[in-house]
Amino acid sequence: MADFTTLDGGSTTVDAMHLDSLSAALDGELHLPSGPSYDAARVLWNAMIDRRPGAIVECGSEADVARTVTFAREHGLLLSIFGAGHNIAGNAMVDGGIVISFRSMKNVTVDADSARVTVQPGATLGDVDAATQPHGLAVPTGINSTTGIAGLTLGGGIGWLGRKHGLTIDNLLSARVVTADGRVVTASATENEDLFWGLRGGGGNFGVVTSFEFQAHPLGPEVLAGLIVHSFSDAPSVLRAYRDFVAEAPDEVTVWCVMRKAPPLPFLPEEVHGTEVVVLAAMYAGDMSEGEAALAPLRAIGTPIADVIGPSPFAGWQQAFDPLLTPGERNYWKTHDFDTVTDDLIDTVLEFVAALPDPQSEVFFAHLGGAQGRVPDDATAYQGRSADFLMNVHGRWSDADQDEGCIAWCRSLFAATAPFATGEAYVNFMTEEEGERVTSAYGSSYERLVALKDKYDPGNLFRMNQNIAPSTVG
Ligand SMILES: Cc1cc2nc3c(=O)[nH]c(=O)nc-3n(C[C@H](O)[C@H](O)[C@H](O)COP(=O)(O)OP(=O)(O)OC[C@H]3O[C@@H](n4cnc5c(N)ncnc54)[C@H](O)[C@@H]3O)c2cc1C
Known about the structure:
This protein is of the alpha+beta class.
């Protein structure tokens, strides 16, 4: 007998015989709390979240996913889905429930002729780049190579190529999905089109994706990319000039602005280490010499402490921020979308950056717009395409004693900047307690998403996410 949490939050016992027969049927592996592999199987990127599921099914095949969905539904168990475990909200693990884990399903296959890439849901962005770059191809994804492709795609997917080629979801051609009733279906522009619409931004609300098919684009292997670092005393003028530069920039140019204490990077003078700086992280997705010309006005802003923009392997640039984003630290995020970055918004953010609660914490503006902004709002469930910037307040620290102070700082900055925000928000950057924000985050998509939930998951089996509740619930 084993104890589990039920969908309604109660508890139930599952006979050992049922777990044994699930385990015997699997191509993958079942991790139970009593087993030696259990603790490693439940680790999440965000060390703030430490959950103890009743069982973790490390799936070895699509059939394992269907078996586990059916098992969870028939026993009425709370279910979660683990892609690569990066989500800040930690919904990939569930206390007392059963977990579908994709830790062992990470294959990426590339058809170089059609530039189509098929990806299993346990793959990271680094796995995708490692398979595509040898063919001179890239799928638009995010900026940190250890992030999971599954969660990133289902929420939208923003990164260095979105202005040129659209969000990750804009490059999704099809997905195979296990639905709540255990069926396996394909969703694409010609099959189950409603589900395809919902998967592109609606998160893991409608089923378990077992395979993604993407359109890749020629890129690299080298791109023009790198960092320009400015001192904090110049921040007000640098941020204004940055905003004015990106307003006129072509789609090939993407520049994110990071405000933080300088890490001990070898190209920064020692006296700068640990002091607040403004970092402009830039990439040009195209011809190297055209990139030199396009980025020249950005490089001419003020008097930087360092400018290390130059040719870089794209796959390496995708890993540039990995050392600052290692797993195992405590993290708390708050996010807003902005149509533009006004002078008042800049001044408000800089006041808070002057009082960072920990040297690991940072605030960044992600530069959006371009191709991702030109896709019609109703083409996908994702909302926020009109926003040219997204801010993430990334509280990050090591010691649990700092939780209260760091979280309070994030919330205060979030509140102070709310008057400048559009109201829509990127669901992939929302923390665990933001459930009430889901409705506004999805803006005009929300009602259609609820109707889709009613059709594909009326019992809300898939609820460990930024949940779109079916209309029968509340
Ligand atoms: C350090 C860091 C950097 C990041 N950078 C970026 C970035 O540059 N751009 C960007 O867009 N985002 C970025 N993100 C956010 C990222 O997109 C989300 O955290 C995303 O959810 C991670 O996906 P995952 O598979 O690793 O997550 P997990 O935690 O494994 O899963 C998150 C949720 O996705 C759903 N899910 C996962 N797999 C499946 C599946 N196969 N089928 C159905 N539902 C599933 C589940 O609801 C699950 O709870 C970053 C996150 C981190 C921590």
